[in-house]
Structure formats: C-alpha cells, structure tokens
Amino acid sequence: MVLRNELLDAESDSDASDSEIEDQGPSDPFQSYNGHGNYKVNRNVASDRSEVDGITVPTLLPIPPSLQNSSESLCSTCKSLDLTPQRFVVLPGDPVVPGEVNDSDAEPPANITLGFIDDIRKKAPHCPFCRLVLAALGPKVPSVGNQGDKVEVTLTWRTDSTVRTLRPRVQTKSGDYYLSLQPNSNPEIAMLANDAPHEAAKKSQLVRLINDQIDFDMVRNWLSICRAYHGGACDESKLMGGYRIKDPAIEIPHFRLIDVVDNCIIPAPPGSRYVALSYIWGKIDLTKILRTVKDNYKQLEVPGSLSLPENQDRIPLTIRDAMIVARKLDIRYLWVDSLCIIQDDIGPGGSKMSSISMMDLVYGAAYLTIWAANGIDANAGLPGVRPNTRGIQQSIEQVTPNLRLAAKMDSQDFTRAEAYFTRAWT
Ligand SMILES: [Zn+2]
Ligand SMILES: [Zn+2]
C-alpha cells in the first residue's frame, strides 16, 4: 500500500526515538524547561526536587573502565584549547565566551583553527581529541578540496543557554563550501553528562552513555515531557493540516488495532491510545507471514490468538518488536497495516481502500509512531529491543582525567535511509 505521507510524521518522531543522547527534559529546580530543548535559568525557584511535574530523568550509566585513567595526552594544539568540564556548561552569570554562537545567531566565521585534516589524521592515533574530531566529522572527509588545496578543520563554540558544544567544520583556503566536503551534516562535540561540574548539568542536554538495549525509562521520560510541555502542538498532525482527530475509533471506518495485552486484533475501542508502526516490507514472502484476511479476522479477535505458535511464528520480527515496545511503554494498542487492515477486503464496499485512504489519519492520530528507519525488510527487527541488536558505538574519548567528550549522534546516524526513502509500496 502507498504510505504517501507518513514520512513527515516519522521524521518528527525520529528525533525522539533516536536521540537518547540528548534532551532529557527538566531536572534542575533553578531552570524551567520549555519542552523544545531549551531551559531558562530561574534563580528564584529554590527546591531540591529531582522531579519536575512527575518527570523523572533516568540515572546515568557509570563510566566504563575503558574511559578512565587513560595514559594518553593531548597533542600540543589540542592542549592549547584548554578543555575543561566548566567550559561545556553555561552557569548562571557566566560571561559569554568570545566568538561563541547562540542557536538564534547566524553562523559567524569559525574562530579556532585545529589544523589540516591530514595532520589531524596523523596525530589521531595518539591524541584523543584529534581522534574525536575525526569521528564527529565522519569517515569520508577528504584531505584535499575540489580546487586541490588542503582541507582544514576549524572549531566553533556554540551555546544553547545551558550547555556549550564544539562544532568542527571543514573547509579549504579557496573556500570550498564546507557542506560539500562533510558527510555529517551537523558534527558536534559535547561533554559526557557524568563529567558535568554540577548536578543540574548532568541532567541537561549532555551526552549520556547508552546501553545495548533501549532504555525505556528514557522513552517514557520523553513522552512525559511531551505531555507536560508540548500541549496541543503534538496532537495536531502536520499530515492533516492542523486537524486534530478526536477519536479515531469513531472517525476512521473499520479501524482495527492489535491489543498487545490480550494478544489479539480487535475493532478499535473508543478513545484508545495507540502506537503506529511505519516500516518497510522489503522482499519478504507474503504467503509465509500472518496477515489479516476475511478468513481469519474473526479468529484473530479471540484473546490469545496472536500468541498461538502457528500465528506468532508468522509475525515478522519488526512487528513483534513493535508489540514489545508498546507493552514496555504501557500503551495497549498497536496499529500495523498488514494486521489491522483486512488485506483481501477489496472491491465495492470493501474496507481496504477506505482504510488506505485514511492512512494519514491513522498515523496522525497515533500517540506515537515507531519509525523502523534502518530495516531493509519487515524481518529486520527494531534495534535495541532485544539483546545484542542495537549495534551502536558511541564515539567518546577521555581528553583529560576528569573530562570525557563525545561526538553527538544524529538521527541520520541510525537511519538506513536508502531503503526507506526509495520505497513507495509496503
Ligand atoms: Zn590533538
Ligand atoms: Zn511532543
């Protein structure tokens, strides 16, 4: 079926699903959070609560031994940057660092020159910060530009009022446009939250160590932030031109949902909150998988029917993982095209075409959408749901004994975009 519009929604959700390394919401009683990644420092509110509005930030993972007591030291260029934990947070009353930029400013010229990419590559085996800069820029940065002159790396401090990060940029003397050289669109280096100089900063937008499996406490934290701070903005779908659906069970004909508690597929109960799954089928054999059809939809309404081996074994892995995610997030219902649309109910009066025509409402009204962004087919699974499936390596370096820095990851780093962006049918 054509999922013509879902990508818009998926993109907005992908920020939340991928960026476990940032944006953990309100945490500091001295700060108020506007829900869009920005805090306002407010020194008039004094309290030692670790929770604000019921939002709990999960505790940090400990620093592994591999990131402690490194015997390496920085090269002389990196040493002269004078990197300290204090420089990576903004404390109330801090003076503005010369040359630092705010998100709202236009990008000024970079103000620190780190050297030519060739030289940085030579120093990288011995200098942890040189190595991190290369990791942040990505593996494909060329040594020479289009005009044949050497590619140089510069650094800019950037602040968003609570944290400072360093942004490496590459360019050549003849002024090749840096983006054309740079595979990572937005390379950025931030401090590991564990090394923050004060408690509040540990919970702000610094990099967190992540596990092999998804931290669902963190996902619940994001959902709480959404509920507490985003108001109606997240209920209105871009897909529907700002239209806010009141109850999909009533407004969408033939609307069915997977009940992940009773393990069956039922007509959507009124007012049900659900997760939608956006994924690609790829080249899988449709005759071997479980799909809802006129012959089995009644049987699949029976509680427990999806747990029967003859059914469960035929549910593609990505869908099974999505069921686990919904359960972990305490959201009882899940919408998946192959199981929630009666696949052979076609022809005059059939439900299939009307369901497909309502697809934008289905995604638009979902409480959240799981975007299976890196799978090449429906059996790829969702990385991090089961053990040893995440496959993410964070680039973190110990640059001084009390400071570890990380190349921030972008949602693009997790996306096998090609398969997703090129498909038209699922
Ligand atoms: Zn260095
Ligand atoms: Zn939201």
Automatic annotation (TrEMBL):
Superkingdom, taxonomy of origin: Eukaryota
Comp. bias intervals (Acidic residues): 8-25
Any Pfam family the entry gives: HET
Region (Disordered): 1-41
Domain annotation Heterokaryon incompatibility: ranges: 274-426
Protein's recorded name: Heterokaryon incompatibility domain-containing protein
The species this protein was found in: Gymnopilus dilepis
